[in-house]
Automatic annotation (TrEMBL):
It comes from Arabidopsis arenosa (Sand rock-cress). This is Stromal processing peptidase, chloroplastic. Keywords: Chloroplast, Hydrolase, Metal-binding, Metalloprotease, Plastid, Protease, Transit peptide, Zinc. The lineage of its organism: Eukaryota, Viridiplantae, Streptophyta, Embryophyta, Tracheophyta. Its main location: plastid. InterPro entries: Metalloenz_LuxS/M16, Pept_M16_N, Peptidase_M16, Peptidase_M16_C.
Amino acid sequence: MASSSSSIFTGVKFSPILAPFNSGDSRRSRYLKDSRNKVRFNPTSPRLTPNRVRVEAQSLIPYNGLWSQPTSNKGRLKRNIVSGQRSAIFRKEASGISLSQGRNFCLTCKRTQPGTKRSLPSAFVDRTSFSLSRSRLISSLRKHSQILNATVGPDEPHAAGTAWPDGIVAERQDLDLLPPEIDGAELEAFLGCELPSHPKLHRGQLKNGLRYLILPNKVPPNRFEAHMEVHVGSIDEEDDEQGIAHMIEHVAFLGSKKREKLLGTGARSNAYTDFHHTVFHIHSPTHTKDSEDDLFPSVLDALNEIAFHPKFLSSRVEKERRAILSELQMMNTIEYRVDCQLLQHLHSENKLGRRFPIGLEEQIKKWDVDKIRKFHERWYFPANATLYIVGDIDNIPRIVHNIEAVFGKTSLDNESTPTSPTPGAFGAMANFLVPKLPAGLGGTFSNERTNTADQSKMIKRERHAIRPPVEHNWSLPGTSVDLKPPQIFKHELLQNFAINMFCKIPVSKVQTFGDLRNVLMKRIFLSALHFRINTRYKSSNPPFTSVELDHSDSGREGCTVTTLTVTAEPKNWQNAVKVAVQEVRRLKEFGVTRGELTRYMDALLKDSEHLAAMIDNVSSVDNLDFIMESDALGHTVMDQTQGHETLVAVAGTVTLEEVNTVGAKVLEFISDFGRPTAPLPAAIVACVPTKVHVDGVGESDFNISPDEIIESVKSGLLAPIEAEPELEVPKELISQSQLKELTLQRNPCFLPIPGSGVTKLHDKETGITQLRLSNGISVNYKKSTTESRAGVMRLIVGGGRAAETSDSKGAVVVGVRTLSEGGRVGDFSREQVELFCVNHLINCSLESTEEFIAMEFRFTLRDNGMQAAFQLLHMVLERSVWLEDAFDRARQLYLSYFRSIPKSLERATAHKLMIAMLNGDERFVEPTPKSLQSLNLESVRDAVMSHFVGANMEVSIVGDFSEDEIERCILDYLGTVKASHDSAKLPGSEPIVFRQPTAGLQFQQVFLKDTDERACAYIAGPAPNRWGFTVDGVDLFQSVSKLPAAHDGLLKSEEQLLEGGDRELQKKLRAHPLFFGITMGLLAEIINSRLFTTVRDSLGLTYDVSFELNLFDRLNLGWYVISVTSTPGKVYKAVDACKSVLRGLHSNQIAPRELDRAKRTLLMRHEAELKSNAYWLNLLAHLQASSVPRKELSCIKELTSLYEAASIEDIYVAYNQLRVDEDSLYSCIGIAGAQAGEEITVLSEEEEPEDTFSGVVPVGRGSSMTTRPTT
C-alpha cells in the first residue's frame, strides 16, 4: 500500500479560526469530508488518480478563508461518479435544476469561489510565548469596544444545543502559567468579553415570525444569493414519514411556476434537505440583462411560492417519486452504506442514526398527496424559517420593504384548517415557539392536548428551540455509561481496513475572547499531530495508509465530534492502530514543543492577517454559508477584520503550558483509553472487507473480532514513547551566495520572443506580459490586485502519460508520485522541506495528466513568500532527490488501485468502455500489476525528467506583485535553471487510435455481485480536440468554411436576422483558433439541458445524467461521455433515451432560446471567475507552448465576443464533428445486485490480457478519478 509518509507537497489542512470546527460531519466518510474542518495526515488520498497525482501542501487555514465556507458544502450530495461518491446522509441535494441551464446542477461540484483561494505566508518570529502586557490588554479592550455591532434581531432558536450537562464544569485555565506582568483578574475579565458582531450584518423579523438576515457584499458584482432555510428536516419525520421532507423539497422546488419564470434571467437555483433543515436557494443577477428591472421581488416571490405555497399536484408528486427512487439507488454505493453504519453507531441513542434524508424506499412508494401536504402544513410556515440575502445590495431598507411586501402576506391565516395531528417526538417543546407570532397564535402553549381547532393548530406548528431536537449521550469523564463494544461492518465491496474512534461532546459556542482563545490553542495542538504522523513513517511498507484526526462542530447534528480514523491494508491493521494510538499518546503526554508553538501560532496569525486584507474579495456564497453554519452553532459572526483583530488580541495571552493542557483534553478518549477517568468513546466502528488479496494465493477470508480491536488499541497505549525532538527549519533553500554563484555561471537573461522581435511582450488590455528566458523556459505573468498580496504559479511541462511507451507503461504517473513521495531536494531532508513550506505557508500540488506534468504553487507576497515558492520550484527542477523507498510506495499505491477496480461498479463499467473505445491503450487507465512490476526507479526517473527541456516548459504567474518583484524572481530562480535546449531529446508519443467498429465491442455490460441493486451506464464517442484536430490527423480549420450547413431553412432565416456587423463577427469566429472550443462548450450546455428535460424529467428514467466533453490541447483527439445512473430495470431504456437525445439535434432543431441560455450560462461563469487568480492561471496556460501552437492572446482577449458571436449554424458545425453513429458510439452498462448476471473477478497478474480491468478513468487533462470527464 502507499506510504504513511507523504511528500513535501503535503501540509496541514485547517479550517477557519472563528468557526474552526464547523461542519464536522466529515468524520463519517471520506466522501463527505471537508478538509477545512479537520487536521489530516493522509499520504494517499483516496481521490488520487493515476492521471492526476495531487497532494496539496495546505496552509494552516485552507485557501477558502477564515470567514468563508468550503466548496464542498460539507456533506451535501456529491456526484463524483467513478467511486460512487454520492453520499448524502447529512444533506440531500435537490432535484434542482440550473435556471440558466434547465438541467441538473450540482451545487457541490460546480460552485466556484473567486477571490478566496490562496496559500498564506510567512517566516516565523523566534519566540516561544506571546505575552500581552497590561496596557495592551486595556488598549485591545478599548479598541474592540468601539467596533460597530450588527443590527441584532431576536435570538435564533435553531442554534444547536450546546449546554453542558448539570454538574459538568469546564476546568478553569491555570492563570499562573501566564507571564507575570499580566494581572490575572484583568485577563479573566478580558477573556470574558463578548466578541464583536459583524458590523454590516442586518437581522430582522416580520410580524409573522419570519426571520431575515441581509449582508451587502460586492463579490461577484451585480449578483446576489437568496437562501430560504426552513427549519425542518429528516429528524422531524415520524416513523411512517421517513424521506417525506426530501419529497416536499423536490415537489415544492420543481413544481414552482414562479421559479421557472426566472429561466433566461441568468439566475440559477437548487435545494437540499438535511437532518435539521431544508434550504431553497437562488443565485441571481440584481437586474435583468436587457433592462434595469429589479429581480429581487421576483426571486423573493419564487422563494415564497416554493416554501409556503407549493402546489401538490398528483402529476408532480408522481414524477418526483420516480426521481427520488432513482436517486436512492444511485447513491446507494458502498461509501454511502459505510456512512450509514458510522452514523447509526455514533448516534445510536437518538434519531440521527436512523433518519437519513433520502428516506426509505417502501415508504416513498406509498405516500399520497394528502400525507405530503399534512407534513408541509405542520412545518412550513414563516415563523419556522429564516431568509438569508447576501450580495451586491446598496439599499437595505428597500430590500427589507421587498421582504415585507412578499412574505408579510404569508401567515397561518391563509393555510387550510388542519386536522388533529400526531405530535412529533418533541411536540412537548411547543412552548419554545418563536415569541412573535401572528394573531391567533399568541398566548401560552400547553403540553396538554385538547380538541379545539386553535390548539390543534398550535401543537401542529412546531418550531424546536434546539436544532436538531435530539438528546445525546456525551463522552464525558465520570459518566456511568458502559463502553460499547467495537462494531464491525463487513462487506465484499470494501477494499481496505478502516476504523473510527468517536468522542462526542456538546458544542462550545464561540462568543467571547476566551472561547476564541481555546479554539486557537486546539488548532496549534492538533496541527503538530499532523506533521508528526505525516513525517515519522517513511518505510516502503508502512503500517497505515492514512491517519486522520478530526475535531469539528456539527450544526446539523448538534454536537462536537472528535474522530480518529485509521485506514490500512487488512494485513497491517493491528500495527496501524497501534502506531496511531502511540502517536496520539506521545503528543498528549509530552505536548507540543516551543518550536511548534511558535511555528503554528505565527502561521495562523499571518493567515488571519491575509484574510483581513481580502475582506472585499470574499464571495457572497462563501459569506452566506459561513453565516448559516455559525448561526446554527451559536457562534458570533464577525467580519474578516474583526476576526484578525480579536485573534491577535487573544494570541498574546497564549502560553505553551496552556496549549498542551487544552489540547490534551481533546485526545484523552484515545490516550487514556480504559482508565476510569477517561471519556468513553461514543462508538468504535471498523469497516472491513470480507476477503483480501494475498500475494501468491489470491483471495482469502478476512476475519476480525471486537476483542482484537481492543487489544490493538491497548498495544498502542503500552508502546514506549519519547518526547518529540526540535527540528531545524531552513530559512531559505538557496542562499544569496549560492544564487550569486549560479547567476555568474549561467548568466540568465531574457531573449526575444519568437515572432515579436522584443524581449518583453505586454498587452495593456489584459495586463498579460510574456517573456522568454535564455534557457528556453517561457514565462507569462499578470499583475492582479483582486486577491490582496497573494499569488499563484504553475509550471507546465509537455508530455505526460501520452509519452509512455509500450515498454514503460505507467512510468510517468508512478514517477510523478515517486517524486511527490520522496519530498527531498538538495541537501535538505524531507522534514526540513515540509517545515519550510509550513513556515512560508506555501501550497503546492504536483500532477500528471495524459498530456502534461504540472506543478502549481499558491503563496503570498508577505515575508518573502513568493521568493520562497520560486526557491522550491528551482530546487525541484535542479536538485530533486529520487528515493528507492518512495518509488516502492508509489508502485504499491497503484497496485492497490488496480485491485480495487472490480469492487466499484462505476470504475469497472468505465474501464470496460474505455478499453474498448481506445483499443486497450493503457496510457488512459491505471497501470496494470504486470506493467508496474516491470518498472524501476531509474526508468520512472528518466520517464519524468526527460520532459524537462527548456522549450518544453512554461511558467505562468498571477498575483499582487510589482513588475520588479516578479521579474527579479523569474531571472534569479527560473533563469538559473540548467535546462536542456535539445528538443530532439523529448520523448515521442505513440499513436492513439479509436478501436475500429469491426471488433464488435460497441456495446458491453458489467455485472457486480452486491447485496443491493444499482445500475449505471456510460456512452462515449470520438470528438476533435480543442483546436480542431482529429484523431485521424485532419485539421478541421482547413475545411470549416466548406462544411455543409445543416437545416438550410432554419439557418437561412437566422442569417436574414443578422446585421452586417454580426455577420463579420461570425466570420471572425469561424476563422478563430478557439472556434471549436467555443462551439463545443455551448453544445455541451444545450445537450445537458435536453438530457435533463427528457431522460430525467419527462421519462423519469434517471436522477442524474450529464454530457461532458473532454477536449485535449496537445493530443489530436477528444471524446464525449454521457454518464447516467438508473435502476437495473430502467438502465437500458435510459441508455436508449440518452442516445436519442444525442442524435436528435438534427430532427429536433436547436432553438434560439437554447443557445441564448447556454451563452448566458458560460458568460456568467466566465465573468464571475475573472476575479480569481486561479482562473487567470488557466487562461494563461499554453500561451507560449510550442505543443499548442494555436493558443494565442486573442483566445483570452476575445473570449466574450466569441461566445456572443456564435450562431446556431456554428453549433451544428461543431455537432457534426461528434461521431454519434452506431459504429462510432461506445456504451457500457453496469449492473450491481444479488442476481447480477455475472460477478466481476480479479484476474491474477499472470492471466491479465490486454483488456483486463485496469482502472479505467474516461477522463483527461488532470481530471479527478471519475468517469465524468471535465472540459
